[in-house]
Amino acid sequence: MKYPSDWKLTDESQNDTAIGGIDRVSILSPDGFEITLNSNVMGIGGSCQDCKTYETTKEKILGDTMGVNINGNNKGVYGIGLTRSDGNGTSDYVCSFLCSFQAKNSQGLVMISGKYKLSDAEASNPNYQPKTFTLEAFKNDSNVKNAKMVFSSMAY
After folding, report:
1. Is 78:116 a contact under the CB 8 Å cutoff?
2. Rounded to whole angstroms, how far apart are CA atoms 109 and 24?
3. Residue 6 burial by CB count (10 A; 0-12/13-18/19+): exposed, middle or buried?
4. CB 141, CB 149: distance < 8 Å
5. CB neighbours (10 Å) of residue 96?
6. 143 phi, psi to nearest 5 deg
7. What is the pLDDT of residues 112-129, one digit of tens each?
8. Which residues contact residue 22 at a Cβ distance below 8 angstroms, ignoring those fewer than 6 apart?
């Protein structure tokens, strides 16, 4: 995978005794836009009451057609993520929050997404709302354009 030279790659992988190893890598831009790549994700739960998909485009990524989803909430756009159809082709490629797809060689899911990272103070505040954008402003953000470049450059 390729990413801008001034972005920082960090390996945040861990071993979970219940499900085994979880690979987690983040790539952080100088101004706080973070792309996260998580493998062997299991048991995704919870919900997002006001999550919404603003736009989905289909692109060839990792040798398959992926849905590149721009999502957010009723206040605006704040994230981008990947998803693809299931084995039966029943998915419409759209996801509104925890975008994921089946891993190539395991039972787990892979979750790849990007958004502006929360500070520790923001993350600890239960009432904090993510910074939102209009759809056009988000699509024109250089970090989002770089995220799409990172997604397109990935290979097994």
Report:
1. yes
2. 12
3. exposed
4. no
5. 19
6. -65, -35
7. 889 999 888 888 888 887
8. 13, 14, 15, 16, 38, 39, 40, 41
State phi, psi for 142 to the nearest 5 degrees. Answer: -60, -30
What is the residue whose two structure tokens read 């939102």?
132
Q: How many CA atoms lie within 13 A of 7 on its CB side?
A: 21
- Model confidence pTM above 0.90: no
**What distance in Å separates the CA atoms of residue 67 and residue 118, rounded to the nearest whole number?**
25
Q: What is the mean pLDDT of the chain?
A: 80
Strands 109-116 and 76-83: antiparallel
Which residues, 6+ apart, have CB-to-CB distance to 32 below 8 Å? 116, 117
Residue 15 to residue 98: CA distance in whole angstroms = 21
pLDDT of residue 92: 54
Of 53, 27, 54, 49, which is closest to residue 38 (Cα–Cα)? 27
Say which residues have a Cβ less than 8 Å from residue 31's Cβ, sequence separation at least 6: 143
Tokens of 138: 């988000």
